[in-house]
Design brief:
mainly alpha; two-stranded parallel ribbon; 2 strands
Length: about 260
């Protein structure tokens, strides 16, 4: 068992017991929030001074905190869901698709996703589907991009390496956006007739793997409201499955279904 994973789960549980968000724990320890997230995911170890900071926050000694680790090690070896790998090696051409929206759209077009009125330039380097989706996630707060992703996930579930997709999202700190897309795909169960049960099982597993490292930051689909009243109204219209991922916006499953090819 990876001790980093065990400590990450211990830290996450302790944080929740104290009703702290990742941002709240980061404030108390003096860490960046990204550090809290990476430690909880098991992709970063802690130094002795950092361990002492955590113990101080929870009002225990470092030795008492570490004494709880065997419980988490045992849970993992018994089959608990593991967090994704810390590293991900990207193919040539990914950087261009990630940095430039038109380059990303050219990759989406290779998988049948085209947007009316958008000129798509030829893709200079063909990317695998996993990396095409990861590049698209960078722009997923644009509604037209987000609406295409759930159908793409469902239609290509059987040909996709879900482990690489989830690991890549963690590497890029895009696990919330991928979680939003996966959760949106799960809303199509009643509309995607004839979809194999294995697809819904894969989506559920990905959702669970991503939820373990959810970031405490809000993602807004579309333009962020400029007044408190408009923001409150948008909050009231945000479905629960989207709010779970700290997403904000009105989302219509019928719009996602337009991109289904099953």
């Amino acid at each position: 068992m990876n001790n980093n994973l065990a400590f990450g789960r211990l830290l996450r549980d302790k944080r929740k017991q104290w009703n702290l968000s990742q941002a709240g724990l980061a404030h108390k320890t003096g860490w960046p929030q990204t550090t809290v997230s990476r430690v909880e995911q098991g992709t970063r170890s802690v130094t002795l001074p950092e361990l002492l900071q955590v113990a101080c926050v929870f009002g225990v000694s470092a030795s008492d905190l570490l004494a709880e680790l065997p419980v988490y090690e045992t849970a993992s070896s018994a089959g608990a869901v593991r967090e994704p790998a810390a590293s991900y090696s990207f193919n040539p051409g990914f950087a261009a698709a990630y940095a430039d929206e038109s380059a990303m759209l050219s990759q989406l077009a290779r998988y049948g996703v085209r947007f009316l009125g958008v000129k798509v330039r030829p893709a200079l380097a063909a990317l695998p589907l996993e990396e095409t989706i990861l590049a698209a996630l960078r722009y997923a707060t644009e509604p037209r991009i987000f609406e295409a992703l759930p159908g793409l996930l469902i239609s290509n579930s059987g040909r996709m390496d879900w482990g690489k997709l989830v690991s890549g999202a963690y590497s890029l700190q895009l696990q919330n956006r991928l979680g939003m897309a996966v959760a949106a795909a799960m809303q199509l169960k009643g509309l995607a007739k004839g979809t194999a049960p294995a697809v819904w099982s894969a989506l559920k597993s990905a959702h669970e793997a991503l939820a373990g490292g959810k970031l405490d930051r809000e993602e807004v689909l579309g333009v962020r409201p400029k007044t408190p009243e408009a923001l409150a109204l948008l909050h009231s219209r945000t479905p629960a499955w989207l709010a779970f991922w700290h997403g904000l916006g009105s989302a219509d499953p019928r719009a996602f279904a337009r991109y289904l090819k099953v």
